[in-house]
Amino acid sequence: MFDILIHTSCRYRFLSSATLAVVIIIGALFIPLLGEQTSKAQSSGASSSSASGGASTSASASTGSVIVNNEPARISKNVINSIVKNSQSRTVTTSPSSIAPLVDLETVRLGKSTFASNGYRPVADVTPFRIIGGHVSLSSPKSVKLVAATITGNNVDHAVVIDLTKVRDVKAGESIYQADLGEVITGTNPFTRQRDTVSNFTDLLLWNNSNSPLTLSDDSEISMAIVFR
Q1: How far from the centroid of its chain's Cα atoms is residue 90's Cα?
Q2: How many whole angstroms separate alpha carbon 64 and alpha carbon 74?
Q3: Residues of the chain falling short of pLDDT 50
Q4: Is 164 helix (H, G, I), strand (E, B) or coil?
Q5: Fewer C-beta neighbours within 10 Å, C or N terminus of the chain?
Q6: Which string of b and e fits 146-180 if b means at least 16 CB within 10 Å?
Q7: What's the mean per-residue pLDDT of the chain?
Q8: Three-state SS at 65
Q9: CA-CA distances (angstroms) from residue 62 to 65, 69, 114, 164?
Q10: What is the pLDDT of residues 3-58, one digit of tens each?
Q11: d(CA 107, CA 124)
C-alpha cells in the first residue's frame, strides 16, 4: 500500500512538471505574438489620430488664411526639359545678336526708399548692345517717368522721356504702370528740355520729375522685357 502511494505521488509530480513545461512553452510562443499585435494596434491608432489631427489642422489653416485655395498643379509636358535634352553644344564663332535679336527679362526691386525730387535711377544698361524694343511694367505709389537714353563714354548723347500709363490701382498707395519700347523714339530730352530722338539706345532710367520726393514701398519694383541686338 505504501509503495502504491509512493508511485502515485511520483506519477502526479511527473505530470504536473510536464504540464508546467507545456504551459511555459506555449507562453513563450504566444506572448511575443500578442505583443506584436498590441504594438500594431497602438501604431494604427496613433496614425489615425495623427491623420485626423492633420486633416483638422489643414482644414483650419485653409479657412481664412489664404486668398485662394488652389488645387495641386499637374505638369503633363515640360517643354524646357525636352529642349535641353535635345539641344547639342556647338562652337559659336559670331555674336548671336548679329544673327537675331536677343531678349532679356529683368525685374529690379526698388525697395523701401526715398526717390529724390529730380532724381534718376538706372534700371537697364545693355552697352555695347542697342535696345530695339520691349515692354516695361512698374509698381509704384505714384507715377514716375521712364527715360530712354543713348549713353557713350561720359556723355548722354540722346534721351527721351517716356510716359508710363497707369493700368490700375493694386491697393492703397500702390499702382501698376506700363509702357512699350520701340527702336526709334521721339520726345523731350529731360536734360536739355529740347525735342530729341533716340535710336538703338543703350540705357533705361527712372526719373522722378516731381518737385517732391517719392517714398517707395517694399512692393515697388520694375519688370522689363528688353529686345536688343
Answers
A1: 32
A2: 25
A3: 1-16, 23, 34, 41, 43-63, 67-84, 92
A4: coil
A5: N
A6: bbbbbbeeeebebbbbbebeeeeeeeeeebebebe
A7: 72
A8: coil
A9: 6, 7, 38, 38
A10: 444 444 444 444 445 555 554 555 555 555 545 555 554 544 444 444 444 444 44
A11: 10
For the domain 96-228, what is the CATH code? 2.60.120
Q: Which three cell numbers stand for residue 82?
A: 525636352
Q: How far apart are CA 79 and CA 98, in angstroms?
A: 26
CA 3 to CA 9: how far, in whole Å? 10
Which runs of E-coded beta strand occur in the chain? Answer: 102-109, 113-115, 120-125, 131-140, 145-152, 155-163, 165-171, 174-181, 184-188, 195-199, 203-207, 214-216, 221-228
